[in-house]
Amino acid sequence: MRDIGKNIRSLREKKGMTQEALAEALFVTRQTVSNYETGRSRPDIDMLLKIAQVLETDVNQVLYGLPAQQDRQREVRRLAVGCLIVAAIFLMLTLPAPLLSEMLMRRYVGAMLVSGLATGLLKPALWLVLGWCALQGLRLLQVIRPLEERAWITWARRGVLLLLAVYVVLLLPSLVVGLIQVIQAGLGVPYDALVEVPQIPAYTWLMNRLWMFLVFHPQVCAIPGAALWLLRFPKD
């Protein structure tokens, strides 16, 4: 029971709440919650019940904490899911590779769509998830832990997710045009009459440089993946 403060902090972070949010739910000040977590003061029985209710747990976990084995199993499952995603993306990249090379050599319609999916979406996604998995593995080795949930952490997490979403939106026109070209070719439209990506100078300049960068440095995408883990994504 001497670790009540540590347990409250752990359960609060698992819930994804800041000290301010917990204090508001308990109708106390943030300093009161801080005092509970640092051990400077202890909640009484009524407050323990309120804390357990707000954090959607039972009083035993507030008093004694989450069983270590149960917590470790949860972390192992999360790493396993990440590894399965990596394996699935890797297979999607490697299995069609010989066919893609032949399509590009023969300039088949649709080759650029497949190449765009591989270079612009799948490879970055592979390294993104690898970055997340690497830190999750270090967590299991007790080398590192996510940052404590605070207001700025929430905004930083949203910022990284927004940047990733913006990138996908920028990529969509090329992928949509590639898909339309495949449909047109299937309908017998002549090659020189196929729809093309609109030539907007700023967009074309930006995408060309992003494309070349990702071709030679896809591993850089591991950085936002690791950042998302540190910023507690996905939230517990």
Features:
236 residues, 434 Repressor (Amino-terminal Domain), 2 domains, 11 helices, 73% helix, 0% strand, mainly alpha
Largest sheet: none
The value of Rg in angstroms is: 24 Å
Strand content: under 5%
* General form: elongated
Based on secondary structure, the structural category is mainly alpha
How many strand units? 0
Order of helices and strands: HHHHHHHHHHH
Domains (count): 2
Unreliable parts: none
N-to-C terminal Cα separation, in Å?
Answer: 24 Å
Helix percent reads over 70%
The DSSP helix count reads 11
Chain-averaged pLDDT? 84
Account of the 3D structure:
With 236 residues, this protein is mostly helical. It folds into 2 domains: 4-64, 434 Repressor (Amino-terminal Domain) (Orthogonal Bundle), CATH 1.10.260.40; 68-230, no CATH class. Helices cover 73% and strands 0% of the residues. The protein has helices at residues 4-15, 19-26, 30-38, 45-54, 59-64, 68-94, 97-105, 111-140, 151-186, 201-216, 222-230. Helix 8 runs antiparallel to helix 9 (151-186) and helix 8 packs across helix 11. The protein is elongated, with a radius of gyration of 24 Å. The two termini are 24 Å apart.
In short:
The chain has helices spanning 4-15, 19-26, 30-38, 45-54, 59-64, 68-94, 97-105, 111-140, 151-186, 201-216, 222-230.
